[in-house]
Amino acid sequence: MPINVEFLYPVLALVVWTLILWLWMYATRIPAMQRAQINPDDARHPGTYGDKLPANVRSVADNYNHLHEQPTVFYALMFFAALTGGGDHFATLLAWIYVGLRVVHSFVQILSPKVVFRFSVFALASITLIILAGKEVLRVLT
User: Fold this and answer.
1) Residues 2, 8: Cα–Cα separation, whole Å
2) Cα 69 from Cα 21, distance rounded (Å)
3) Is 102 within 8 Å of 14 (Cβ atoms)?
């Protein structure tokens, strides 16, 4: 059963976005730590210096961490679908919607203090992931 490589492009896109956030995180965090005169050795435990960094710098790091949480389910689901014959046009559309919503979520979390708006975007992404998972369950059970 050949793998639909184009179906996996959203996976690559989210991986690249995560790496962009990694760069963004360190491009903001290192200068902020220097300005706050934080010794890197004192910052080895997450949260030990958080109140000394500006909220916008912490938000980038928080979002980078979030991209290692729920998206792991997305990655597993995408590879499951690709390896078991899933990956039709609708699933591909759902995958791109999920990735787009995660990118929007990143910008909202980093640039806006509105938690309700951020949660709304997160909820839409979660619902998209649930639909994609449900579609896969129905596909393999029927």
Assistant:
1) 13
2) 14
3) yes
pLDDT at 50: 65
pLDDT of residue 45: 72
- Cα(57)–Cα(123) distance, integer angstroms: 24
User: Could you state, in order of their start, the residue ranges of all structural domains in the chain?
Assistant: 5-141
pLDDT tens-digit readout, 25-54:
999 999 999 998 888 887 777 666 767 888
DSSP string, 84-116: TT---HHHHHHHHHHHHHHHHHHHHHHH---HH
**Helix (H/G/I), strand (E/B), else coil: 124:** helix
How far are the Cα atoms of 12, 17, 29, 32, 46 from residue 35, in angstroms, in the given order? 35, 27, 10, 5, 18
How much is the pTM? 0.92
CATH fold group of domain 5-141: Four Helix Bundle (Hemerythrin (Met), subunit A) (1.20.120)
**For 87-103, what is the mean pLDDT?**
97
